[in-house]
Amino acid sequence: MRQHTSCFPYRHYVSAHMSNHTYSLQFPEHEIPYWASRYSYSEDEKVEKIIGPAVRERGNYTKSEFLAVCHWKSPRTQPLCAKNSKEYVIDVTRTSLASNNEQLRIEILTLLHGVSWPTASAILHFGFDNLYPILDFRALSSLGINDATSCLNYEVWHSYTKYCQKLANKNGVTLRTLDRALWQYSKNPTDIQVMNEFFATNHYR
């Protein structure tokens, strides 16, 4: 499998070596609750509270659920995602969610029109309960990795997943909370004054 080590610069804070790649959290671990609390996205409730539980109970996505999650992750892909037939969406997602093989779980989803590795990771994120993180350029940036979108493959997804699972477990947070923290930090890493007020109020230090 091709390696893209030039996409993974070494940074500071918490580091982990997995599959020849290095992930380094760009802020102290105790700040995860703060950055997660700053996250706000209007469509989260639908995909998290309605679509996710329904998919997990049924064992597959319907086409409308699939389109909603794809829009949540990347609105510009909607025309391509809409090309998938409802039967194809059901069969592919059912195969993915039922498989015990992690490589098959993620890679089969990329057979769907409009589904890249990040979108496939979002489909798994909501298709399982607190098992998979979302692969996103903002999250990767918060782990010290920039310009990695052209490097995405199973090795990267798998090492990223294992790192996030370990980090979330170590800090007693869900993968959903960690995802929010990583995304928000990359979006606005200089919100120092508000951050200090948060810690002063919540006594996280």
Question: Which structural category do the helix and sheet elements fall into?
Answer: mainly alpha
Total number of beta strands: 2
- The strand order across the widest sheet is 1-2
Low-confidence stretches: 1-19
Strand content: under 5%
Provide the residue-averaged pLDDT.
85
What is the overall number of helices? 11
Our count of domains comes out at: 2
The helix/strand order is EEHHHHHHHHHHH
Distance between the termini: 43 Å
Largest sheet, described in full? 2 strands, antiparallel
Structure report:
This protein has 2 domains: about 15-40 and about 140-200, no CATH class; about 45-125. Helices cover about 55% and strands about 5% of the residues. It has 11 helices and 2 strands, in the order ββααααααααααα. It has helices at about 30-35, 45-60, 65-75, 80, 85-100, 100-105, 115-125, 135-140, 155-170, 175-185, 190-200; strands at about 15-20, 20-25. α2 (about 45-60) packs antiparallel against α3 (about 65-75) and α3 (about 65-75) packs across α7 (about 115-125). The model is unreliable at about 1-20 (pLDDT under 50).
What's the SSE blueprint?
Elements: E1 15-18, E2 21-24, H1 32-37, H2 44-58, H3 63-73, H4 78-81, H5 86-98, H6 102-107, H7 117-127, H8 137-141, H9 154-171, H10 175-187, H11 192-202
Antiparallel strand pairs: 1-2
Helix pairs in contact: 2-3, 3-7
